[in-house]
Protein 1
Amino acid sequence: MRKKSLLNTRPLTATAKMLKMAAEDQGELKRVKVFGGSYSYMQYRTGCYFRAVCREGNILEVDMFTRADLAKKDREPRFRIFLDYENKEDNTYDCVSGKWRKAKIDGLDWKESQNALYVPQGKSIQTDTVRRLVNTYFHTGLSDSVWKAVLDFQNVVRADSLSKRHRIITDRIDQDMDMVPELPKNFDHFVHWKGFGDNHMLFFDNGSSKGYCTACMRHVPLKGRQEHNVKGRCPQCGSSVTYKGWKRQKYADGSTRVSILQKCEDGVHYVYRQFEAGRKLHREQGYVPEVKLYEEYRLILDARMREHHEYEFGEFKNTGIHRWCESGTTGRGRYGYYNGHWYGCYAKSVLYSANLTRVLKDTGLKYIPVAEIVRAVGSRRLDVRGMLDNMVSGRLPYEAFWKMGLKRFVTDDLLDSGGLTKLRRDAELRKPWEYIGLSKEYFNQAVRMDAGDRMVRILQRFRDMEVRVTDEQLEWIDGYIGPHVLLEYFRYQTPHKIIRYLKKLGVGGDMEHAKSTMSLYADYLDAARKLGMDIGDASVFFPQDMKRAHDEAAEQYTMMQEQEEASKRKESDAKLKKRAKLLKSLFDYGDEQMLIVIPDSWLALKHEGNAQHNCVTQYYDRAVEGETNILFIRRKEEPGKAFCTVEVKERSGRLLIIQNRIIYNGEAPKEAKDFMEKALARAQEKADRSARDRERENPVRIPVAM
Ligand SMILES: [Zn+2]
């Protein structure tokens, strides 16, 4: 189809009937209320009008006229659409702008747009003759409107040209996708029971003592009154459900992610398929669950269960065509970071377990009871990719752990895709316990207790300190202390005594209270140890009044730190002392109310800073170097108590007050300011005099020493 020659013929013009119809379509004023106001628009019955004609070379020309143009008695079409059925081509000419358009019929810009907000368009109008001509041309029977027939053809043309352009990419993807088998028949059943397993509801109506269970999808009789949002069990099927008041909950929409691992039809590869499962529960529908599955992600794995290719369902290269694409290319958004690379829509999911043993029987995972493990995980979402990675890489001897009875630990590890337990990475690990850094004795205890990730971490700490606890003690510690810093101190006293003391402090009751008590106690022990107290001594380790002991130890510890800091600053303090001496000679001033104190050590600044809540310590280094000077104004009756902190600088022999502040950096009161001005004037006089004296003694001018 040569564009230029298409325009050699004149376009069709509007018929008298079309003009009449458009003139009669006067429109109707509609008013729409929106939040915060309203807007109005004209609603017309008709939108666009079509005429069509067959041109040379079996090309169909469909001309589109608009109501607005026709109403203005404009007989010219807005667009001329040329269609070539044989060669699968189409071209659209915009008669107003004189340009060719790439858009399909539904993307052309002509709409009645008096208003920026949404305005429904009028119907498209064509005579039966035109409709027949167009449908005959496209071999589409007679039922399609011109609009639909043209649009359908244009869609085919677009898809066709797309497939030609991207054949190499799409072929490779399709090759992988063709290997993906059908879903098992009971997959929906699995989605319902397992996918939403922890999210079933029982809608009740206290008036009728009946309810509807979304798990067994049956009406069940209920005894007594029910409470909204309370967890319980369905009396019919025994599923754990949340009770929901029929009157309180109009609808409950939710979604989860479910997945399946399958062997591909080529007999070599495997595929992880992930679905978003959306569920609607609406009162009008009697809360009967309506579940829709959207397959969003596929991971093709090779025969060794290693990652091969990743795909996601979405729009292919901005073409408007939705299909399987390479992961990360559809703009579905980058949801997160995993194992060193960004992933698209991969997510944790509830994995279908019924086929796992069969699927994995030819893989390196055949000895690991994967199906059993996944079943134990239940309706909790699993990082399936992480699980496979961990199992393939032999991160832990899952099979041995599972068979020995460390089931909770295995599921914890896989649910958290790696757990929190520190693992040993040495190459020559032989025994299962060595992987998690336990000796056989500690490991046996872990097995006995069916220890989870947390309890194993506690045992690791105890193993490092060679502390043994009984099973009962371990359970209590796991329940109320956890892998807390307090565990460090179990080496100093017997677990029995420590637990007894903690119980006395209230640990084991309210969790919030226990948490703050434990951190206070750990703080105390830490301070006591740093103060050199003997925490092996029970009277130190178990103080009568823990809170008071804490406060005292904390205060002592602060003092000790301050002294340490002061000794660290011995050299610079000596320099500051020298400067302070000079300053003292200049600012040797006082009146009935106030006097001036010159700080001569780090500690002096620090105490002032603490008392005044200012950051005067930050001036320490500059004061030491003589770049600035810090002075305190004190009241005569309380010379030990901070009042004003003052900064004085010298510029070309002139002394200047830079800051004069009271507590919290507040402005000094007028009397303190006046006092400081006087003190400064006196200091300036003294400085000038000594400068003159020095000049007289030595004619070469030496700058004032400050
Ligand atoms: Zn039920």
Protein 2
Amino acid sequence: MGVIPVLEYHLIGERESRWSRNWERFARDLELLHARGYRPITVRQLVERRIDVAPGLSPVVITFDDASPGQFRYIAEGDSLRVDPRSAVGIWSAFAARNPEWKGRGVFCVLSGADSGHAFFGDKGIQGQRTAWRFPKLRRLVADGHELCNHTLWHANLGRMSAAGVQEQVARAQLAVDSAVPGYQMRTLALPLGIWPQDRSLLTRGSWVDARTKREVRYSIDAVLMVAGGPSRSPHDSAFDPLKIPRVQVFGDELEKLLDQLDRRGSRYVAGPRAR
Ligand SMILES: [Zn+2]
């Protein structure tokens, strides 16, 4: 019944600031979590109560918002592509090679049509990223076991949009992901700016018709991530609300402080022996 940290990263790069994690520090965050007995699970696993970490260990959810190149950057080498070892996916993969329980299990809250390099991890040459690499990146994430999460079409302030606009924002992101990974349904949504639409029910279920193709795109969301609020309750706690999952932004020493606090209070979720 303890609490579970749902961590939130934005930019991964050289800089260290409120919205940017230095890539070496990100690598150290993974080491720290591992050393302190945490193992990653996805939001899917959290809301479906499939917390499969070994007895005595604790789950952590690691989310990445806004689909910037620093999270997943390719480097072209002749005819082949290499994942930049300084991008989050490169760091994660290297860590997973040494710690197999880290394979997959990140949660990437993506924007499909944002500008300034935030459309599926960069396009149009931003940070060397080609537009044609966007879909292969999504396919690679899914193949590796990561979860894709809907962060809307271009990070709209949903509180200022019409009902039709809200549904278009969510549905078009879903359509774009389906184009890259046929059949993939995003079931988790990260609220842009933490702002709810006036009609909250539009986040969980809705549809939008593509005027050009007349195709109707439906979506169905059953987990909503907020931008702040501290660690999450256990999904076994009756007060756990999957449509209001709080998160903790990682910057400065916030992660160390959080882990220390959970241990001091004895409030962290620790997996018990598995029932057989
Ligand atoms: Zn965002």
